[in-house]
Amino acid sequence: MANVSSKKQAQSIDYHAIEAMESFNSFVKKKNTFLFSITAVFLFLYILLPILAFQPVLQQKIFGNITGVWVYSAGLFIMTIVLCTVYVKKAASFDKAAAAVLAEYQAKGGK
Amino acid sequence: MNIVSIGFFLAIVGLTLVVTYIAAKRTSSAADFYTAGGGLKGWQNGFAIAGDYLSAAAFLGVSGAIALTGFDGFFFSVGYVVANLVLLYVIAEPMRNLGRYTLADMLTARFNEKRIRGVAASGTIIIVILYMIAQLVGAGALIKLLFGIEYWVAVLIVGVMMTTYVLFGGMTATSWVQIIKASLLLFGTGLLAVLVLMKFDFSLMKMFDTIAVDHGEKFLVPGIKYTSTIDSVSMMMALVLGTSGLPHILMRFFTVKDAKTARASISWTTWITAIFFSLTIFLGFGALNFVGLDQILAESKAGNTAAPLLAHYLGGDVLMAFIGAVAFATILAVVSGLVLTGASAISHDIYGEIIKGGKLTEKQQVMAARTGSISIAIVSIILALFAQSLNVSFLVSFAFCIGASANLPVILYTIYWKKFNSTGAVTAMVTGLVSCLILGAMGPNVWSPVEGAAIFVGQPLVPLAVPAIITIPLGFIAGYLGTVLSPNRVPQKEAERIYKEIRVKANTGVSVSDISH
Predict the structure, then answer these.
(1) What does the pLDDT look like over A54-101, one tens digit per residue?
(2) DSSP B465
(3) CB pairs A-B closer than 8 Å
(4) Is the dihedral of CA B304, B306, B311, B316 positive or negative?
(5) Do A13 and B90 touch (CB under 8 A)?
(6) Cα separation of B466 and B235, whole Å?
(7) Deepest in the core among A53, B23, B130, B190, taking most CB within 10 A?
(8) Which residues in chain A have Cβ-Cβ distances shorter than 8 Å to B77?
């Protein structure tokens, strides 16, 4: 995370100056777009389960006696693991972007 | 009650007391008490959060539900697993970056008003008590079944143990008890699942074939318990969104040093819960096939003893005693976390911040925390003693419903919505909380035309067991309307200044160690 952690520095951080920086705003915008679009996707796929579970489409047998609801649920488990990994990877790049923003702020004469 | 059971039982008690003794030496400040000094590692906190998910309701309840109702029981498993993503994507990091000990701390970082703290703390106490009664009543019934001890003695044993951990070892002890229990539970569940699979020659297909042929195809699809789409959609919404609003889970994000560790925690939790809940299929179907519906129902109507009974079939008294001890550890760990969370709301939010205005010495804070822990423990134990004959499983779903409807909207607005104001925060929390309680009180868990099926005899006015599908949108709408219809209590400029600060802190994690309230 940020390398600005000592108390003395923290108290003298000018949050306004950081908030006004172009690099900060574009980073936050990129981050929020990523977070909320993925969140919308997984919540949608998730809530389809109880809706489709009562329809013939997921009550079909797919492998032997294993029906569609179990397969779809397994898909949601896999989705969770995959999106968790995606997030952790993506977050590492957000960390870098946040560090870059703070470095830029300090270079500008921020204390 | 045999010698093996007593041995396992005492081993769990002994181990957790040793942990508490070691933790007590490290617990001197309020930060130690509430957040283990923020010094947990990612894997430790990940196991501890997984421990919070895997309550007795999850372990015993879900495997029992799958045994009795097939796929209907597995809905819960899916909900708990996907809930991790909500925490990870929108809650964990900003929470760590803005809060100190409690949810109220995080909200007051933006709106420094006592009423916000009061409402948030009250919501926390209500959720904690609902959850705790459910756990304690379940614990009493389980221990009675496994060891033949009287219900009230069992509740007192659990009560004394949980109070001991929290009182002396604070969050450090609570976390380690949680870690030990999560590991034991994973091991025990894994063992049972492998033994079940062995009986089916390690073939998933064979297991499903056996269930379909011997027990009926109705177990392969939903419909035994849930017949309406809207009811199950509502419950699933409560599960996936409620987890992010449960105060004892949110509190766990303050036990790590920064957002990166918070992220690593949830990543661990995701893997642990995904593995655990996959195994619930084998526990449930194993119990259905080898123990049989009649015997499970004979022991407990809700199927709560399906897992111990399966263990008895697979490995005799020894394995059953081990699974019983694991279930006991599960209950101890979860209720300890709840006591601590309740104490944080009473002692830190209400007494320390609202009544004393944050002017307490370190010593007084720890003293207050311990007093709060004892009081919440005593209240819960008394309530649990009176609730013995109630079917309490619905209390947990209520806790999720309140978490999703009262806490989640306010958390999201506080972090992400620039125009949000304190009146909006109050209306969102109060509306979410009150609507859950009112609609819940009119629902089928409280009213049933069948004598003895619910608390009162009569037609439920609201046909939903969990009213989340109505209350979650209400919470969000109330927060929006409360904001746009109320005058700002602080000047526009000041409000913007505070939000800018929040935005920088939430997104960069700058000065986590220096958040002033």
Answers:
(1) 998 899 998 888 999 999 999 999 999 999 999 999 999 999 999 898
(2) S
(3) 165
(4) positive
(5) no
(6) 6
(7) A53
(8) 73
